[in-house]
Amino acid sequence: MKLNFLNLRFSGHKEKVVNIALCLLLICTVFVNAQKPQRIAYIDMEYILENVPEYMEAQNTLDSKVSKWRSKLDKLSRYIEKIKNDLANERAILTNDLILDKEDEITLKQEELRRLESLYFGPNGDMYLLRKQLVKPIQDQVFNSIEGIVKKKKYDFVFDKSSDLVMLYSNKKYDISELILNEIVRERKLKINKEKRQQKSVLSKEKTEKQKKLLRDREALRKKKDEERKARIKKSEEIRKKRIADIAEKKRILKEKKEAIKKKNNLEQDNN
């Protein structure tokens, strides 16, 4: 089944003549395939977009930018008109050189105005690029939701009620706008839940890393304390050994002194 989505209206209305041609093509197709029951539905794109927060945010951003650009163009346009009026009022008292200078300034400002108009609102201008940047993700989101519903329900044709395509009558039971919105909401919730799980996974990983770091720090602190304890024991042992050596040395010296005194006394007795 080939899906045909008419007039998503993200970048303006289709030409009416194109819509009429498509309508005629659809009628012909239905007529040719009259033996096969056709499943037809329609959507209200304006209603869908008004209930998609991302679209409203994108539209507000775009409107804000457009307002600033138009304000800048209006300001320049008023300045050009002022120069023209001043020249018209003062032409009689100005020299030819001053008149030429004023005319050159007007020409330069007019060229600048045309350049800015093309830059902002030209076929590939800033507004077109910004609209594409802001709307493309939303367009894909809505399109994917429509495609999912259409494939699930097996519709043959889907119309956009808010487009220029004339709908003389529409039965509410064929309106699948709410289904599309529900699909968009479901996709948004899935995305949010996925982001939450990813965030939770990151937080869990960070927590695990912190726990590992804490264990490493504790182990390093334990080793440090153990090394300090061993150093204290070693130092105490060295002090004890030195004390024992000092005592032994004192005893030896004292013994030598006693032996020297005894030897001296023995020599004195022998001499007497």
Question: How does this model look, in words?
Answer:
The protein is mainly α and 272 residues long. The chain has a domain of 160 residues. 77% of the residues lie in helices and 3% in strands. The protein contains six helices and two strands, in the order H-E-H-H-H-H-E-H. A two-stranded parallel ribbon has the order 1-2. Helix 5 crosses helix 6. The termini are far apart.
List keywords for this structure.
disordered N terminus; elongated; 6 helices; 2 strands; 272 residues; two-stranded parallel ribbon; 77% helix; mainly alpha
Largest sheet data: 2 strands, parallel
Strand order of the largest sheet: 1-2
Strand runs, count = 2
- Class by helix and strand content? mainly alpha
Name the shape in a single word.
Answer: elongated
This entry's quaternary arrangement is single chain
What would the average pLDDT be, to the nearest integer?
Answer: 79
Percent in strands: under 5%
Given as residue ranges, the uncertain stretches (5+ residues, pLDDT < 50) are 1-18, 30-34
Cα-atom radius of gyration: 47 Å
